[in-house]
């Protein structure tokens, strides 16, 4: 199981992903969330790197 909290990458946001099967699934869910809630259509590489580090597998 993998999880992620938006707050862990410095967003003031209560969004979290829990129960995803792996980091790839977390990434997909987080990308959709970033687009719909933060207006980030294509996350810059530094944000992607931060996100990957914040995923707890
Ligand atoms: Zn968020």
How would you describe what is shown here?
- The protein has helices at residues 23-38, 45-54; strands spanning 2-5, 16-20.
- The chain has 57 residues and is α+β, with helices and mostly antiparallel strands.
- It has one domain.
- A two-stranded antiparallel sheet has the order 1-2.
- The longest helix is centred in the middle third of the chain and has 16 residues, at 23-38.
- The protein is globular and about 25 Å long.
Principal-axes shape call: globular
Strand content: 15-25%
Return residue spans where pLDDT drops below 50 for at least 5 consecutive residues: none
Question: Given the structure, what is the number of helices?
Answer: 2
Query: Taking all residues together, what is the mean pLDDT?
Result: 95
- The secondary-structure element order is EEHH
Count of DSSP strands: 2
User: What summary fits the major beta sheet?
Assistant: 2 strands, antiparallel
Strand order of the largest sheet: 1-2
What is the first-to-last residue Cα distance? Answer: 6 Å
Assembly of the depicted chains: single chain
Based on CA atoms alone, the radius of gyration comes out at 10 Å
Helix and strand content put the structural class at alpha+beta
State the helicity in percent bands.
40-55%
Number of domains: 1
